[in-house]
Write a structure and sequence with these properties.
Elements (H helix, E strand, L loop, with lengths): L1 E4 L4 H12 L4 E5 L2 H8 L5 E5 L5 H15 L4 E4 L15 H28 L5 E6 L12 H21 L4 E9 L13 E2 L5 E2 L6 H13 L8 E5 L10
Parallel strand pairs: 1-2, 1-4, 2-3, 4-5, 5-6, 6-9
Antiparallel strand pairs: 7-8
Helix pairs in contact: 1-6, 3-4, 4-5
């Protein structure tokens, strides 16, 4: 059983479809029932659960529901997140800061916590967790301080989980994506702000390429871990964002 958060659109939908195509039973989690059902498309192994990853009670209910079809949770794809408003550190308002950190950091933590609790108790125990990072976990885009901080936090979360859970049969990966063509990054392929103040279009890639990488990692035995993987458009700016 795999749980995919943020499964109603974008990268989450692509990953969910790839896992379903590979034969997995998948719990599709997100805030909007209609979009989750669009992802499910009446697939017999897709199970829709409406959930808010920023709410501890909602996340607990999600993983309680996730155990019902198969009695266990083998995979968590911690994908839900937002970019939030743009701005340098002196321009970001309180609401934007809290919203980005709640969705990207607290949400990932809460889902990982509940997944690990299930994975430790089930027999046989263990599982795999993939946290959605970003190239922004390494180098920022201009005027993206809230998002960049949130993705650096994901690096800390993944590293701590790998240390604390390696003897529990739980493998953790950080998936750093660069310019997948989703609604969240729709403007990048047309006009993206560069560090020198200019704007230009950047290369983007189909989310299916990232999804196939996820399916490969999930297919590995738990004796094998992939601590981090970067999948990006080859010609996009990366080193120093230039």
């Amino acid at each position: 059983m795999a749980v995919v958060t943020g499964a109603g659109s974008g990268l989450g939908r692509a990953i969910a479809h790839a896992l379903l195509d590979a034969g997995h039973t998948v719990v599709l989690a997100g805030r909007t029932r209609a979009s989750l059902h669009e992802t499910a498309a009446d697939h017999p192994r897709a199970h829709v659960v409406v959930a808010d990853v920023t709410s501890p009670a909602s996340v607990r209910a999600l993983f309680s529901s996730a155990r019902e079809p198969r009695g266990r949770v083998d995979v968590l794809i911690n994908n839900a997140g937002i970019f939030g408003g743009q701005g340098a550190v002196d321009e970001v308002e309180d609401e934007t800061w809290h919203d980005v950190l709640a969705a990207n950091v607290t949400g990932s933590f809460l889902c990982a916590r509940e997944a690990v609790r299930v994975m430790k108790r089930q027999r046989p125990s263990g599982g795999r967790i993939i946290n959605n990072g970003s190239l922004s976990a390494h180098v920022p885009r201009p005027r993206s301080v809230a998002y960049t901080v949130s993705k650096h936090a994901i690096s800390g979360l993944t590293a701590s989980m790998n240390l604390d859970l390696r003897d529990q049969g739980i493998a953790c990966t950080q998936l750093d994506v660069g310019n997948a063509a989703t609604a969240m990054t729709a403007g990048v392929g047309v006009r993206a702000l560069q560090p020198d103040g200019t704007s230009r279009a950047e290369a983007v890639i189909d989310p299916s390429h990232i999804a196939r990488s996820v399916v490969h990692i999930v297919s590995l035995p738990l004796e094998v871990n992939v601590p981090s993987i970067t999948v990006m458009a080859r010609t996009m700016p990366y080193a120093g964002r230039g």
